[in-house]
Amino acid sequence: MANILIAEDDVLINNLIKKNLCLVGHECTQVYDGEQTIKSASAFAYDLLILDVMLPEVSGFEVMAYVKNTPVIFVTAKGKLEDRLKGLRLGADDYIVKPFDIPELIERVNAVLRRTKKDMRFFDFDDVHIDFDSRKVYKSGEDVRLTPKEYDLFETLLRNRNIALSRDKLITLVWSMDYDGDDRTVDIHIRRLRKKLGLEKRLITVYKMGYRLEI
Amino acid sequence: MKLKFWQKTYILVLALFLAGLFAGILSLTVFSYNKSLSEKEETSRAECSYIASSFERDWSSLTEYGRGADITLLMASYGDHYKKQNVFLCFRNEDESVYSSFTDDAPAPGDGKLIYRNTDAGKEIVISVSICGGKYNMVYAKNIEEVIVSFRRLTVLYVSVAAGVSVIVALLLLIILKKLSLPLEKLKRTTELISEGEKGVRADERGHDEFSALAVSFNEMLDKIDGQMAYISKQADEKQMLVDNLAHEIRTPLTTIKGYASYSAASPLDEEERIDALQNIISEAERLSKISEKILDGAYLEHHELTLKAVDLSALLEDTKKRLSYVAEQKQVDIETDLSESTVAGDHELLSILFYNLIENAIKACAEGGKVTLSCRETCAAVEDDGKGMTKEQLSHITEPFYRTDKSRSRAEGGAGLGLTLCRQIVEAHHGKMRFESEPGKGTKISLSFCTPKQD
Q: What DSSP state is assigned to residue B347?
């Protein structure tokens, strides 16, 4: 679990990011302008800062100078290439342009956390234990044999837990973009995961959306 | 062959000059040649008649003494004497030659006639006269070769002097014409630089001739074009900025709508959360529609000329106050009025939008229990509030599209950030003036002035 600081002046968007990051198990703190961001970031060593560029008082680009040791993802409506480059040159770890997809945001957050080693290494729920480093899953202490794709699918669902992922999204995230297989591949893998890990109640089918792992 | 203007001028002027010069020299030499010939004729005639009369006198004095004088001796003595002077004489009796100092056969022109003939020694004037009462005929010949020679010398001299002058003139003309066409050449180089994209290049305006006048008007043209270009690029920049801002303004509510929609679709929500998410979606959708409405209004203003009619401002303000009374009551803001009779040239609908926006902004700026004052007099109107006011920095930006003094609050109240931009456009369309006075914490006063309506 990571401690994430969300600096975004639009209350609705700030709340939206917070709600989704909380769903996948992160702790979030919300700030609404540049000065507050600098204050909060220097008071506590957050694992990640999600930073809007157009903040009142002190802009996100200016905030960068004060948050040297915190990984940063810029979130902004300024989608121009020069703005993106400026953000990355200032030392941001990633850049998300509004309007963004929630799964995309979570994926990028997780990617940055993985890179900066602030990511989780183990996860436990019910009697299931997952070791991310060795890519092994244990149920009641017993090693459950998963194929590599089954493991990838399970980890993806776990990292986006409580959020429904469409079959298309799952194919993109697990099988890579240019996978030609149909949606049934996803269904078959989901069925196998349910059976192997006893997830019938947790891994539910969401009408017209896809699948959601509820923890 | 392509010739430059100065080259054409050079060739034409030089050709004309040479033709004139040589025609002049030719006619001069011909004239002087003819003149010296006729002079020679005169002197020859005079000399001839002088010889004839002195011969007759000598002959008659010889015959008076009665000595059996021999006329041929006299003829010979004359012939010898005049031969030294390059004059040849021939005496004939009938057609029989009595004496001749000629080296060849003497010609026989008619009596009293003058002819020219060419001999080995050169040109001769030949005159024949009858003497001794027609008994004898004297042929007089005078070599005039020296006239011809001196004429030839003169011609050669003239031609060589003329050739020299021609060369000098040709050179001078070349230099002068090149120098004269220099401004034209410079102007050409300037235009070339401009067409290569060089900026700020201007033609040389020195001098007082047509070229400098051309350079001056050329530069004026460039200045005008530069001004137009600057104006157009400024407009393009403004448009670009508007588009950038617009993209930003549309993306933000879109992010919210998309985010909350997918949030409620993908996550297990309780009833309260679900309603909250839906309300967020609705309010952001409303904001989007407000933005599009204002943009359309602005676009309408930019592309339509207004027909201004007399509008009663006091009635309009009273009406707008009524329309906003609900908003004011909600915020417990008191709207006071100080309205005198006031008629301006305007479009009723647009002025109503203008004051609606201004008064709505004033109400929003007020704290609860605040006060908004509307006043109008003659062609002026003012909207005043005792709200939070603005700093100078904020004042300088307020009519820019999408500028908000307080972003999060304006959001919460559903502003699009276009209200004052539209107001500015409306005032500009009315050729009016809008002035802001504000102090943080004390309030804001917006003063407007319009034109008087035309009397029909």
A: -
Cβ A77–B259 below 8 Å, yes or no? no
Judged by CB atoms closer than 8 Å, whether chains meet at B256 and A16 is answered as: yes
pLDDT in tens, B345-382: 888 888 888 898 889 888 888 888 888 999 988 888 99
Distance CA B92, CA B99 (A): 7
Q: Peptide bond preceding A99: is omega within 30 degrees of 0, i.e. cis? A: yes
String of DSSP letters for B281-325: HHHHHHHHHHHHHHHHHHHHHHH-----EEEEHHHHHHHHHHHTH
The Cα A96–Cα A60 span in angstroms is 13
Q: Which residue has the higher pLDDT, A175 or A116?
A: A175
Q: Are B145 and B36 in contact (CB under 8 A)?
A: no
Average pLDDT over residues A91-95: 86
Domain range A122-213, its CATH number among 1.10.10.10, 3.40.50.2000, 3.40.190.290, 3.40.50.1100 = 1.10.10.10
pTM: 0.54
Give me the number of domains chain B comprises.
3
- Which of A98, A106, A214 should we substitute to test contact with B (largest number of B Cβ atoms within 10 Å)? A98
Domain that holds residue B230: 206-292
d(CA B97, CA B82): 18
Which pLDDT value is given to residue A175?
84
CA distances to A154, A162, A210 from A202, in Å = 12, 10, 14
Pairs of residues, one from chain A and one from chain B, whose beta carbons lie less than 8 Å apart:
77
